[in-house]
Amino acid sequence: MTKSNIAEKVTDKFKRPMISLRISITNRCNVKCFYCHHDGIVPQDYEMTSNEIKRIVQVAKSIGIDKIRLSGGEPLIREDIIDIVAKISSVGFRDISLTTNGILLGKYAENLYNAGLTRVNVSFDTLNPDTYKFITKRDYMENAMEGIKKAVEAGLNPVKVNMVVMKGINDNEIWDMFNFCKNNGAILQLIELLKTENGQESEFFEEYHFDMGELEDELHKISNHVKIRKFMQDRKKYFVDGGEIEIVRPMDNTEFCKNCTRLRITPDGKIKPCLLRNDNLVDLIEPMRSGLSNKKLKQAFLEAIQNREPYFTDSC
Question: Which fold has domain 14-306?
C-alpha cells in the first residue's frame, strides 16, 4: 500500500488509518482447541444474514476500508459461506480473506475462489495425529491437510498456515511444518501465545509459552531476506531456502496498538473497535432493522473509529 493510499483513509485521533475490517460471521466451531480466545469476542447466539453482512461492508467501503477478513468460530460451518463471499466480492475490495481450521476447506476451496475470495489462513498446529487430537479434541487432521493443498490448487494466494507454537506440545515440529508448507506452496506463520488476565489462562501461558526470541535470532542468521510489514505491527517475514516464515508476536504491547489499522465486527453485528476490549462496542444490526439509512450507519462507523484508543499507550 502506497503513502497516497494511506493518506486517503479515514484515521482515528491517533492518526491510525482504517484499512481492514475483520468480520466474525459465527461463534460456532467444529473443533475445541484448548488455547482458543474466540478472537476477543464474547460468545453470542445470533448470526448476521448474508444481506446484513453485505450492507455492512458496503458502508465500510464508503469510509475507505479496502480489505475484508472473514473469521469465526469456524466460518466454513455456515452453509451460505459461498453466498457471503460472493456478495462481499460484488461490492469490490482489494483483498478478501478468510481464516479457517481447514477441515471443510477441501470441499469449498474452488467455489470460494470462484466467488471472489483472495487468500486464506489455515489454523493448523501439528503434523502429529495424536497432538492434533490433544489440541482440537477431534480427529480431522487429514481433512485439514487436504484443505491446505486444495486451497493452493484452487488459486488462493497466499495460503498461510497459522501454527500456535506451544512448549512441550509442538515446538519440536517447527521445521517439519516449514517443510510441509514449502513443499505444498503455503507460507508458515508462527504464532506466539498471548497472555491474558484470566488466572487459569495465565497458568496455561506459563506452562506452554514458547518464546520466539531465540528462533528469530536463528532465522536472522539463516534467512536469505527479511521483510518488515509496517502495517502488520512490524511483523517480520523470513525467506529461507525457497520457503517463507512469518512470526506473530503477542498483541499485548504498545507496538501492536500503535500500528493497529483494523476494525472488527462481532457475529451479532456490533463494531468492535479494539481487539482487547468489549466495553465500547457500537451496534449496527438494531439500527439497520429500525430502518436507518447507510448514511446513518456510516456515522456509526465514524463514531466507533473516533472512539478508538490504544489499549496499551506508552508509545502512542
Answer: TIM Barrel (3.20.20)
